[in-house]
Amino acid sequence: MIRSNLIGICYGLGNAFCLALTGFLAKQINGYNPLTLMVSSGLWSVVFLTLLNDEKSVWINVGRIREKGHVMSFVASVCFMPLAAFFLFIALNFIEYADAMTITQSSIVCSSILAFIVLREPLKAVDIFCISMALAGVFLITRPLFIFEHFGVEKSSHYPVREIGAVLSALTAFCIAVFAVGRRCVVYIDSLFLSTCQGYITLLVGCLGALILLHLTGKPVLPHCTAQDRFVIMAAGFVHATCFLCNIQVFKYLSVVHSTTVKTSVSAFSYALQCIFSVEPFSCLSISGCCLILASVFLKSYASFTLKDFTKIFSKGNQNLV
C-alpha cells in the first residue's frame, strides 16, 4: 500500500512537471500553430512506444478488454486526453493563459464527482478540504481575470471573445475528468499499450486540429521556424509525450481524487520555472498559492496512509537500527 502510493505520487508529480515544462517551452516559440506540439507529441509516442510494444502483449490487452466488456472505458481513456489537449490549445487563442489554466484545473471537482458516481469512490471531508486548498492555490498563482478584474485588474484587449475560450477550457476539464474515470475502469490494461493507442489518437487529432486552426486563424504549422525553434518544438513534444505516459501510470496506483489533487501541482511547477528563468518576478500571492497546493498534496497523501502503514514504516526503521 505504502509503496504503491509513493510510486503514484511520483508519477503524478512527474506528470505535473512535464506539463509545466511543455507550457514553458511552448512560450519560447513565437508565431507557431500551438497544435504543432500535439503533432510532435504524437510522433514521439507512435515511433518509440510502438517499437516497445510486442504483438503478443497487444492481443492480450485487447482480449482483456473484450472479456471484461470495458470497451467504452478503454475508448474514454484513449481518446479524451488528446481531446482535452486539443480544446485547451484552441482555447488559448480566445482567453488568457491564466484563465484557461484555472478553469482547466477545475477538472479536480469534475473528476471527484464522476468517480463518486461511476466508481463509487468515497468522497470524504478531508478530500473536499484538500480539493478546496488546491483550487485556492491555483487561483492565487494564476490570478484569473474573471475573478481579479473585480479588484481593479483590466481586461486584455487581445481576447475580445473570451466566452468561447471559457467554454473550451470547461470542455478541457470535462474531458480530463472522463479520462480519469475511464482509466481507473481499465486499470488492469498495460500502460505502455494505452500510451501507444493514445499517441496515435494524439497524432490524428493534432494533424486535423492544425489544419482547422490554419483555416480559421491563418497560422501555419511551421511558419519559417529556425533550427532552434524546431529543436524546441521536438523537445516540447517529447516532454508532452512523457507527460501523457506519466498521466496514464498515475491512475494505476492512486484513486481519482488523490491523483487529480497531486496533479494540481502543475501550477506551482509553472510558476517555479518562470521564476528560475526570470520570466516572472516573485510574488507573495503566488508563493502562498504554491504552499497551499503542496500542503493539499501532503495532506491528501498523509490521509491515504492508515495507522497500520505508519506502524510498519517505524517497525522496519527500528529493525534496521538494531
Description:
The protein is an all-alpha fold and 322 residues long. The protein has one domain (2-312). The chain is 79% helix and 0% strand. It is built from 15 helices and no strands. The protein has helices at 2-27, 36-52, 55-68, 71-91, 97-105, 107-119, 125-142, 145-148, 162-185, 191-217, 227-253, 256-263, 266-276, 284-304, 307-321. The longest helix has 27 residues, at 191-217. It is globular and about 50 Å long. Mean pLDDT is 77; it is low at 152-157 and 317-322.
Kindly name the structural category: mainly alpha
Biggest sheet descriptor: none
Domain tally = 1
What share of residues are in beta strands? under 5%
Order of helices and strands: HHHHHHHHHHHHHHH
Distance between the termini: 25 Å
Number of helices: 15
Number of strand segments: 0
Low-pLDDT residue spans: 152-157, 317-322
- Radius of gyration, taken over Cα atoms and rounded to an integer in Å: 20 Å
* Global outline: globular
How confident is the prediction overall: mean pLDDT?
A: 77
Features:
single chain; disordered C terminus; 15 helices; mainly alpha; globular; 79% helix; 322 residues
What is the strand and helix layout of this fold?
Blueprint: H1 2-27, H2 36-52, H3 55-68, H4 71-91, H5 97-105, H6 107-119, H7 125-142, H8 145-148, H9 162-185, H10 191-217, H11 227-253, H12 256-263, H13 266-276, H14 284-304, H15 307-321
Helix pairs in contact: 1-11, 1-12, 1-13, 2-10, 2-11, 4-9, 4-10, 5-7, 5-9, 6-9, 6-12, 7-14, 10-11, 13-14
